[in-house]
Amino acid sequence: MKFSIIFFRYKTLLMVSAICLMWTACSVDTILDPNNPSADGIIQNASLGEIQNLVDGTESSMRDNLNNYFDGVNVIGREYYRFSTSDPRFTSDLLGKASAVLDNNTFYTTNPFAARYRAVKNTNILIDALTNTKATISDAQRKAAIGYAKTLQAHELLMVLNEQYANGIRVDVKDPAKLGPFLTKDESLTAIVALLNEANIDLKGNAALLPFSSTIYGGDGNTFSKFNRAVAARAYVYKKDWAAANTALTESFFELTGDLNKGAFYIFSTAGGDQLNPLYYPQNSSGETRVAHPSFVTNAEAGDNRLNKVSLRASAEFQDGLSSTYDFFVYKTNADKIPIIRNEELILLYAEVQAQLNQNVNAVTAINRIRVSANLPVYSGAVTQAALINEILKQRLYSLYGEGHRWIDLRRYDRLVQLPIDRTGDDVWTEFPRPATEQ
Amino acid sequence: MRKVLRKTVLVLVAFTLPLILLAQVNVSGTIADARNNPVSGASIKLRNSTTGTTTDANGKFSLTVPGTGGTLEISSVGYQPQTIQVSSNSNQLTITLTDDISNLNEVVITGLATGMKRTNLAHAVATVSAKSLTGTTVQPSLDGALYGKFSGANISANSGAPGGGISIKLRGITSLVASSQPLFIVDGVYYDNSSIQAGLNLISKAAGQGSTDFQDNPSNRVADLDPEDIERVEILKGASAAAIYGSRAAGGVVLITTKRGKPGTPKIELSHSIGVQMQLNKLGQRQWDTAKVRAAYGAARVPLFQSANGQTFDYEDELYGNKGIMNNTRLSVSGGNESTHYYAGITRKDDEGIIKGTGYEKTSFRLNVDQKITSFLDLSLNSNYVTSEADRGFFNNDNTSTTLGVSFVSTPSWVNLFSDANGNYPNNPLAPSNFLQTRDLITNRERVNRFLLGSSVTWKVYNDEKHDIRIIGRGGIDYYTLNTIAIFPRELQFQKNGNGTNGASIYGTTITRNSNYNAFIVHNFTPNERLNFRTQAGVTAENVDQDNVVTTATQLIGTQTNVNQAGSVAVTQAKSIQHDRGFFIQEEFNYNDLLLLTAGLRGDKSSRNGDANKLYYYPKGSVAFNIHQLAAWNLPAINQLKIRAAYGQSGNFAPFGAIYSPLVPAIFNGNTGSLIGLTRGNPALQPEKQKELETGLDVSFLRNRITLEFTYYTKEVEDLILDVEIPSSSGFTKEWKNVANIRNRGIEIGLMAIPVSTNDLKWTSQVLFWKNKAKVTRLDVPAFNTGAFGATLGTYRIEQGKSPTQLVGIGTTDQKPDPTTGLVVFDDAEPDFNLSFLNNVTWKNFELSVLMHWKKGGSNVNLSTLLADIFGTSPDFDKKTLDPAGVATNGAYRLGILGSSAAPWIEDASYFRVRELGLSYRIPKTVLKNIAAVRVGISARNLINIFDYSSYDPEVSNFGADAISSNVEVTPFPSSKSFHFNIAFTF
After folding, report:
1. Are residues A52 and B469, on separate chains, in Cβ contact within 8 Å?
2. Domain spanning B2-100 has what CATH number?
3. What is the pLDDT of residue A20?
4. In whole angstroms, what is the distance from residue A404 CA to residue A238 CA?
5. Is the whole model's pTM more than 0.80, yes or no?
6. ipTM of predicted complex
């Protein structure tokens, strides 16, 4: 009897253990996200179609939150006012009204910051996907494509640095779990330039077609290199490396007599689901609107046709102690493209570089190219470096109005004090605070 | 039948005759109840052996007892167990069972395949019987029927919309972002309880400003169950009882057993109830004069007011005053023979809502069959088909003033919204929508078709005096299609003339296919009379597959509602797929019903975890000590005294998708790009883990006339999951992480008594008291506000050391706001305590049942009042009861505080309620020539409601069953009370 008890218990136990072992040994299949493509999957082995998706996603994301980027930079640069009945902070915080300061956890700081780094993340995914893909692309194409991704990444990082300035930025953000350190302002700029140069090695002279279609600039490595060099020229100028900037300009799509609007653009459309130009408001809007800073009109030279960038309102718009009779009207429809970088900026960068290199004749030639196209007489001021720089900064205000340069230009020449103060107690900020989540 | 039986007995006798010589005792007889009716299906078992049988349809049994006899234990659900000694052959035994007036002898499910007598349980399990579920009055849905009937739960209806929608939290908050709702299991089949949004946000834009959560007020799918089918409900409230359900049991488990046939002649029950429902609490309307109109709407509106010539409309009555007729018809047939039992039931329900055009229709059909295939193989099948249609109106928060609720509070009584003779509605001059037009023209319908199939097979592998080995296999499928149909025609004020999208037709289809399978081996080992070991082990598998497609058509063509008859169509699809595999082992030890020990372990792996093949373990252990079983016990007045302790763990998954870092679509230049999502998935995420320790004391006095259950629990929920803000330079703004712990502590007291029990008069009474306190014990991220609409209006705040349901808001200096956050803690959504009181009195053929429920404390964020104040329509706007200075009117006073303190919107939501009241009279079968027994009665739901709360009903949730952020009100579908006349025939 004893034996049988033991026997049964033993047998039962054995059977049960066997079943349990079999069951737990059989594995549960990992289920991939049923609703979206996964980044990991695409990194492992992307098809050409998926690479195209990443490119479109990246170029789309570069547009995200441009309204807050441009509103931040342009309002602090006193190019226009952003009036908003639903949010008073455009006229208080951004202009430093009374005791208001820029906040490190408010949309104008955090949203453009996050949007640019999201685009950076997408370029990192694109680079990994291009590195690992088993799709049929040539080595030259792979190089050109990676060069393309790095160039866009550098551009996005430069946008972040434009706002963060003295705080410096993180450049190595490949691993979200192990983010690289914050570099100083100068280190950041150096790293961005290095990234552009690294990309250009793969792009320059590389006639291979990009293995995808892009709306930024050209369809092959060598053509895209000209966009890379244009961004590099801007970065070198910010770095005050005039000689390198000069070289970069000659390798870019810079053309002294060419179309001022040749260049790379953010594009928008009214198609379903696509983004509209976020800086467009119809003329004479009230409540939510952008109006030109009065100084833009009052300081303009007579006959400057660039005053078509503003539009006289039917009635003046007031808010928070500020007023203007002109609408900001650079973009005439809600599908107008916004420049990333264009020839007019390159001509003015050329003028600045030549002036800095004491090639004043070249500088004056470039200035006159701009003045004449703006329906102004040729430059008649002093031909000294200082006078030319003053003239170039003014031409940059009018030529690149609303494109996010005024604040940065005056900051690099330590001239922020020259910006007009509209209300007693208003401040001109040097940079945005580092976002709260980055502390 | 008789003859067959006699033959059988003869054969049996002939067969067993030789065995008598081998020292055996043969007994047979009849078991009957106190009214001398035979008791079928009663169990007769030789004490401490596996020898036993059950009675047939006539209450007869026969049994061969080996040896020289012994003690027979006779038991049947609803009767007190009895024992008799047998030592010699007997074929004329007549055993009369007395009704069990306590529930101490019911068997409660304690393993995945086994149960245990309540007297031996080591943890508190709440059970709700069919009688208490549906015996008093007609129930709109199962979830609604559970209110106040067991302790340890906060149950709250989300609104009064027909078709249900309820939030159940067992023993407090158990999650921050995942669900806190319990797992429902019907006859062993996992029962999906999703709440699926109908896509109304397109119109309401409720998510977007202030809150990102949808507020479509969907019903939850447990409403599909027919309460009339249910035999009993067991509620496992925490991990100590629910550990065997492992990774899905953190919110507790509700086990539902449906009715089954018993051997005997077919029993036919036919019942019908007709009732009427009406608004539970009318608020009234503000009285107007020119000065008030000028103050509220400006001088420009005064001519409009004057043109009304003093004519006003009672819009509360017009909108909420429908007397909804409720019909409920039920037919069931059950019966069977020795080897086959069946139960078939059909219910047809047709309820009209208190708002014209709303209502709920449901048809449910169930067939349960049990079949003995061979002497050692039993098969049991359950099937249920439900089809239902709920028209739910259009309510809750919006940012477009288009819901009926918001539009109603924005409209003063002197504006005429009625249609003209041609059916054309005027535009509402003071709001973007005309709620009468909206009510009459829109559709917001949920349509469900659901199949539930379950089966179980029991194979009695081996059986002797000491051993009983069984293998049990179970499986089930839960399949449903839910259509959500929302139609907003283009002639609506908010759809035409550039407002809105020229009509919208939102058509959602959700197909859910869930299945679960398990197999167990159970070994009962009784080495001697005093000892019993029960070992069980098994494997489990659960699969979830849900596919939700919502097609939104706008720019409708004419009056067309098909989604292709539109100028613009958008489609979204969301799938959720999950595979779980696990095992379970458990050992129970019983020493003479004196000491009972249980230890068990569940292991689960799931595709919902980052590592799909990692096993997570959920152990449990318990001990119960029946002091009254000690030989030395000599207090006859106390017939049970038990102390008990139980510990267990259970888990909860992260929200679906939390382990993925998806690429989301981005439309660009005519193409669709892929862009990294904003929230970083975390494959290393651990399931939320709950550890519960429960201790308790059960005492019964005076032959179970008084029973007291006392339970204290501590449950620690660890590794709570939250989408945490991370440095956005990573490319993400949030990431899923395990960051918090919550501890719930509480007590539950149950007192059951039978104050009077005579032949004519019997009074049973049950008092339940429960209280829970929660505290955040770990928080790895800074304290944050969540839920509701921000600190200005009152919000929840998750903060270490504080209750997770504390309600905070901005406050004035005399309210002493926290100096760093500027926030004042006003109250907590969790009640101070709940008390329910159930009484049942039978006198001769009359029966009276009353269920009362008192919820003390716990506050709501009431924004209905805020909106009414803003639009100047609050019924109490002109009273002067709030301002301490007695100067400002209530409306002006509250609005004056808006922006400086959230105090006026955080309101005490205590209530006392007579939830159910029923009076019935039973006409015995003998009166009606033995054709049928008839029961006629009247009943009421929510008959008496007492509360100070300033809106329709303190029981409300704008955010549905969200873990945190229920107890928020924004112009909901008002709740109702109802009266019914019932008649039931039993043939």
Report:
1. no
2. 2.60.40.1120
3. 57
4. 14
5. yes
6. 0.91
